[in-house]
Design brief:
Largest sheet: 7 strands, parallel
Structural class: alpha/beta
Distance between the termini: 17 Å
Radius of gyration: 16 Å
Number of strands: 7
Strand order of the largest sheet: 3-4-2-5-6-1-7
């Protein structure tokens, strides 16, 4: 069972949430993500992708706060999805030291820069907002361990696609995990940029 080999603190949260059984997708994907490989996770809605993203992110960070620079980045499509995922993360980390921060285009970039500078572990944001932070030296990726993209189908849009290419060119090394319901050619092309040697999990 993929849950059995998670950090004890994460397992305690799962017990409190009464999550005891992994989905088929989680059984296949969690061990592969934990291995450190770049991974395309392709599966239908309600198969457990978002929970997998949260669990593997918390596992990668050993369920504890460290330093000041973000060690995990999660890219989502828009403000609404960013805030929803932020709340979901908080349901796992509310009694923990991990610092989760959410940013989006509508939040002034100077506010984001100053709040991130105070120290965070997990950054949830949109491609355009993340790209702007990079251009203004508003976020360090020196400690980045895992970079996830939730519901990545939206990256078919040209502007979002270009922003992702720009962002990842600024990152020296980390693990990338892309979650999507479909696997169009445009997402496959990321193998030429940051998804090198990626494994593919499909349900």
């Amino acid at each position: 069972m993929p849950f059995k080999k998670l950090h004890a603190g994460i397992k305690d949260v799962l017990v409190k949430k009464e999550i005891t059984t992994a989905t088929t997708f989680q059984t296949k994907s969690i061990p592969v993500i934990k291995s450190g490989s770049n991974v395309y996770c392709i599966s239908p809605k309600n198969s457990g992708k978002t929970t997998t993203l949260i669990l593997t992110t918390l596992q990668k960070l050993k369920f504890e706060a460290v330093g000041h620079a973000p060690r995990a980045v999660v890219i989502v499509e828009n403000k609404e999805k960013a805030l929803a995922l932020y709340e979901e993360f908080l349901s796992y980390t509310k009694n923990n030291s991990l610092r989760v921060y959410v940013g989006y285009e509508q939040l002034h970039i100077d506010v984001q820069k100053s709040e991130i500078f105070e120290g965070i572990d997990i950054l949830i944001t949109t491609p355009k907002s993340m790209n702007k932070l990079f251009l203004l030296n508003g976020v360090s990726t020196s400690e980045l361990k895992i970079f996830s993209i939730d519901d990545a189908d939206f990256l078919n849009q040209q502007s979002e696609y270009k922003a992702m290419i720009s962002i990842t060119q600024s990152i020296i090394k980390c693990q990338y995990v892309l979650y999507s319901e479909t696997f169009p050619e445009k997402l496959k092309r990321f193998e030429n940029y940051f998804m090198e040697y990626a494994r593919i999990i499909t349900i």
